[in-house]
Amino acid sequence: MKQKELFSIKKLVLISMLGALSFVVMLLEFPLPFIAPAVYELDFSEVPALIGSFALGPMAGVLIELVKILIKLLFKPTSTAYVGELANFLIGCAIIVPAGIVYRFRRTKKGAILGMGCGIVFMVAAGCAINAFVLLPWYANLFGGMEAIVRLGTEINKGVTDLFTFVLLTVAPFNLIKGIVVSVITFLLYKRVGGIIKQV
């Protein structure tokens, strides 16, 4: 019982540390002006959560994402009535959970690649759905209607003419690029970092 309790405490400490690291990494964000409007900024905060998901299980990955968001709200109050933070959490979990589940049953290099591939697909799908039905309509109410948001997309891609094409031509590629970059970084780091985590 004491060993299990100690392991649980260690796991919680690791989750907290990875969550804090995820928050720090989230601060290092930059736009992809050739893909999406400047309001969409790329960060790599899912990397610590994805590593945690592989090393400690998918639920740990979810908790790392949650810790990241809670720390963010502690130091930087929401400017989106928590909608942006919720979207960030859900889209992050969309890549972390499938990847962690697949890797849990196939703990090989191929299993990790397959898991991250599934995670990228889920991340793109979740990003499109959340933006189309929650985030963009909410922003439209704040910033002059959907036409104003669509114009931001049209300035980058002339094919953007409405909400559907905005999501298809800006949101989907943005999340696809983010998912691929996060997965590549995780793949390169996991063997070294994951081994350290398991030894703690």
Helix/strand layout:
Blueprint (H helix, E strand, L loop, with lengths): L1 H25 L3 E2 L9 E2 L3 H11 L1 H18 L7 H23 L3 H34 L3 H11 L6 H37 L1
Antiparallel strand pairs: 1-2
Helix pairs in contact: 1-2, 1-3, 2-3, 2-4, 2-7, 3-4, 4-5, 5-6, 5-7, 6-7
Summarize the structure in words:
The protein is an all-alpha fold. The chain is 80% helix and 2% strand. It has seven helices and two strands; from the N terminus they run αββαααααα. It has a two-stranded antiparallel sheet. α4 (83-105) runs antiparallel to α5. The chain is globular, with a radius of gyration of 18 Å. The two termini are 19 Å apart. Mean pLDDT is 90; it is low at 1-6.
What are the main properties of this structure?
7 helices, disordered N terminus, globular, 200 residues, single chain, two-stranded antiparallel ribbon, mainly alpha
Structure summary:
With 200 residues, the protein is mainly α.
Task: Tell how many strands the DSSP assignment holds.
Answer: 2
Task: State the major sheet.
Answer: 2 strands, antiparallel
Give me the secondary-structure category.
mainly alpha
What is the end-to-end distance? 19 Å
Low-confidence stretches: 1-6
Mean pLDDT: 90
Beta-strand content bin: under 5%
Helix content: over 70%
Lateral arrangement of strands in the main beta sheet: 1-2
